[in-house]
Amino acid sequence: MSILNMPLIIQDTAAVEGDMGMMWMLISGILVFFMQAGFFLVESGMTDSKNAVNIAMKNFLDIAVGSLAFWFIGYSLMYGADMGGGFFHWGGFTFSQGAADLFFQTVFAATAATIVSGAVAGRTKYTTYAIFSIVLTAFIYPIAGGWEWNGGWLNNTDGIMPAEFIDFAGSSIVHSVGGWAALVAAWMVGPRIGKFLDGKPVEMHGHNQMYATLGVFILWLGWFGFNGGSQLAWGGDDAVAASQVVLVTNLAASAGALGALLLTWFKNGKPNLGMTLNGSLAGLVSITAGCGNMSEGGAVLAGLIGGILVVFAIGFVEKNLKIDDAVGAISVHGICGAWGTLVIGLWGIDGDAGIGIFNGGGAAQLGAQAIGVLAYAAWAIGLSFIFLFIMKKTIGLRVTEAEEIAGLDWTEHGSIAYPGKRQREIEE
Q1: Given a cut of 50, is residue 421 above it in pLDDT?
Q2: Is 121 inside a domain boundary?
Q3: What are the Ammonium transporter AmtB-like domain coordinates in residue numbering (predicted)?
Q4: How far is CA 226 from each of CA 20, 58, 95, 106, 175, rounded to the nearest angstrom?
Q5: For the chain, what is the domain count?
Q6: Which among 54, 115, 221, 390 could disulfide-bond with 178, CB atoms 3.0 to 4.6 Å apart, if both were Cys?
Q7: pLDDT in tens, 199-236
């Protein structure tokens, strides 16, 4: 082969890898889109059957309205030009850097909104939820995302950052932002009727654990696209890196499920399905930030601790904070999202080099991760409180007691998921 043909071969290879990268992002985005079905099944399965239609409507709203809001303004706020010290970005309405990237980032925004849905299930006005979903996907999430994924202030080591903040696929940017917003929403909406008796939480069983189990399997599958697609490329070293990301994602999810299973078995004498399901999700959230900066053993340990942490966190939110989180979203996404971000500073890696304090990396990375965790918590909690407080004082957050008892399916949507004697009486 003539050496004169080498530049053409290099160009052809680059073109093929570019096309493959675009295909990988689209396939990954489709997997993340499918996660909406998983969120619906988990939330509906873990809650009362009289609210299943309402939950379906919320999940459809998140992807439909969220897609339009993020396309019109959110993507621009996230990936537009820097307008002020890496804190704010803007590129104009309907700004885009390519269809594949826009679609991939859109389904991430919808995921952040859906996290809130589970925490406030069974007692929130649909109108209120719709408005807040738009606010989250159009403003709260994208502005925060630009801080890291668009070279924002969290990457500026000339400022307060001791090292560049790392959040590969969104433990903080997606999950903690959604989780902290869910914390504020659940607190402001208040607990479901009957959740607390004499100040003590009462277990409110979901109506279909098989739905919840199927939903978690769908989420687990979708997470391979969530994390793997965040490589944003395919071919050569990128293909190897994305494959490794998928591998450590699976390992962390497995370890999280096992950690929650064994802990509940030890505490209660029997392994608990609901906690095991949340344990696997906790493992997934725990590896999302570090899936590109974690060894296989490190991923197992991060996921295992996440699965154990979520069990204690769910109990703390209910018993100590007196907050009713219908599906454990605050603990899974908020608390384990923070853990998944911090763990990079403990035993994270960058190629063959250690960047965590336990593998010779020093404290700089842990400091950067901690600053990011606190910044995202403050942003999501502060902005969520402002918007929800305004809505509480205007249109209200919660349905009436009679509407909650009857079920949101009928009172909010005039529809029933499971027709039966009681539902027919309500309809009459």
Answers
A1: no
A2: yes
A3: 23-418
A4: 17, 21, 22, 12, 12
A5: 1
A6: 115
A7: 899 999 999 999 999 999 999 999 999 999 999 999 99
